[in-house]
Design goal:
alpha+beta, 4-stranded antiparallel β-sheet, 11-stranded mixed β-sheet, 12 helices
């Protein structure tokens, strides 16, 4: 199988310009007193679970860090229904099968330059030239050109009916020309368009952001953000509880009860925690042993016990937050008969501890597989020290928390990225002709309902391969201090703070 490695933060978060408010849970106009700028809008103290892994490049894992902090945005965003919504582009239209025209709004880069068609086209061109390419561009070739004073024409090599959705990806954020240095280096500091501007980055420890007063969507109510990257979930919860933080993302379920009910917000997300089985080498190259592993797992315990009710039992690639999926789901196709594991079936199972529930999930998986006759060696590391080996197929099994609509909002995109022969995030190392054909058929469909039907048909084949076993569909817990309003509780996990977030 050909493997195109693409760094994706397995468990990340998302969204961009909904800072103006598609998911805003508050807003209002009163300025807070305190350590603000020009006498208003106190700074927000925010803890994120994942430290920068790629020098804040928008093309990989760090893209959602930038979007969640309100730094970057793209031509489009996702609305509450998962449809493309205006962002830097105020409108768009399709011109034939392969061409889309995006009309830009009047906006300014944080370094003072205008957001022009030429600047947007250049930024998109840099993304297409990135190595590896952003996940949102998996299998897509596009050419962006300026067309007049306000229009960008984007031409794809093949018809792409979901291009506006694709361009909502945090990895396709628009940056000014000053962001692009020699080689592959991309520097978003001071070169983005969002309501908050990065002013200082202290490695993987912290970052400072100031309000960008010329933001097209209106002046943010907070004067800035002091962001800390705290991988330990208990530490995040403790810092919120002791008043050191205003917002703590991804509070572990084990810490939820320790927070006052008013400071605990849980949100259904499009994130699924799954067990991925290496289908190309080792024990699980045998479909019968994959079937045995799947049959050995009692998935009901994960939502009830490990996630303490902050989740739903695994049903498929897409969970309950993808509201249309359940009514369209069909039985898995082509499952092999389960074989009995033998003495030689020792497997390596891995996961990461940035999300504190995952090691516990992995322990339960280990116990259930061992009860079925497998010998299991468990590896747990911090995500950045694990990703390369996972993408290279060095583990037999991997517990992954994956937001199925992270990259584009298109349900087909995650299938192409994660489960096809040339998929850039194919940790399961699956290469199946039937799956590839079903995904390719789905990618050609423009009609939304028919595309969803085709996605579910492809899901049935993927589940039938037993290369992925959905364990639980997560709810995310965000800790929010009593004094804070307007935190963006986004099911797609692309946005956390916006123009209306304040204390």
């Amino acid at each position: 199988m050909r493997s195109h490695r693409r760094s994706r933060l397995l468990a990340p978060f998302l969204l961009v310009p909904l800072t103006a408010g598609c998911f805003a849970s508050g807003g209002g106009g009163d300025s807070a007193s305190g350590d603000g700028k020009d006498g208003d809008g106190a700074r927000l103290r925010v803890a994120l679970a994942f430290p920068p892994a790629e020098n804040l490049s928008p093309y990989g894992a760090d893209a959602t860090l930038l979007s969640r902090l309100g730094v970057t945005e793209g031509l489009t965003a996702l609305d509450a229904n998962g449809s493309a919504a205006p962002a830097l582009a105020e409108s768009w239209r399709r011109d034939g099968d392969k061409t889309w025209e995006f009309t830009l709004r009047d906006a300014t880069f944080q370094d003072g330059g205008a957001v022009t068609p030429a600047a947007v086209a250049a930024s998109l061109t840099h993304a297409t030239d990135a190595k590896p390419a952003p996940a949102a561009l998996a299998g897509v070739t596009l050419d962006a050109k300026a067309s007049g004073d306000r229009v960008v024409r984007v031409i794809t090599a093949e018809p792409d009916p979901v291009l506006p959705l694709r361009l909502s990806s945090p990895s396709l954020a628009i940056l000014s020309k000053e962001a692009y240095g020699k080689g592959s280096r991309v520097d978003p500091v001071g070169h983005a368009t969002g309501p908050f501007e990065l002013t200082e980055v202290n490695g993987a420890t912290s970052a400072s952001l100031d309000r960008f007063d010329d933001y097209w969507g209106g002046r943010a109510q907070a004067s800035g953000i002091d962001a800390r990257f705290i991988a330990d979930g208990t530490a995040r919860a403790n810092a919120l509880r002791t008043g050191e933080l205003d917002i703590a993302e991804a509070v572990p379920v084990a810490q939820a009860a320790s927070l006052d009910e008013k400071t605990r917000r849980d949100t259904a997300t499009t994130r699924t925690t799954s067990l991925l089985l290496n289908a190309s080498s080792g024990t699980f190259e045998d479909a019968g042993l994959r079937a045995a592993a799947r049959a050995a797992l009692d998935t009901s315990v994960f939502a009830k016990d490990v996630y303490e009710g902050y989740g739903d039992p695994g049903a498929g690639v897409y969970g309950p937050a993808v509201t249309w999926a359940e009514g369209k789901r069909t039985a898995p196709v082509g499952r092999a008969a389960a074989k009995k594991p033998g003495d030689g079936n020792t497997i390596t199972l891995a996961t990461y501890d940035n999300r504190p529930e995952l090691p516990e999930v992995a322990q339960v998986v280990k116990q259930q597989l061992e009860k079925a006759g497998f010998t299991v060696e468990l590896t747990v590391r911090e995500y950045s020290r694990l990703e390369g080996d996972a993408l290279d197929g060095k583990f037999d099994a991997f517990v992954l928390a994956r937001n199925t609509l992270l990259d584009t909002g298109d349900p087909v995109a995650v299938l192409a990225s994660d489960y096809t022969c040339d998929g850039g995030f194919n940790i399961a190392q699956l290469c199946d002709e039937g799956v590839d054909r079903a995904v390719a058929d789905a990618e050609k469909i423009a009609d939304t309902a028919k595309r969803q039907d085709a996605a579910m048909a492809a899901e049935a084949r993927i589940l039938g391969s037993d290369a992925v076993v959905p364990l639980v569909h997560q709810r995310i817990i965000t800790g929010v201090a009593d004094s804070v309003q307007g935190v963006v509780l986004d099911p797609y996990e692309r946005t956390l703070v916006g123009t209306g977030t304040r204390r």
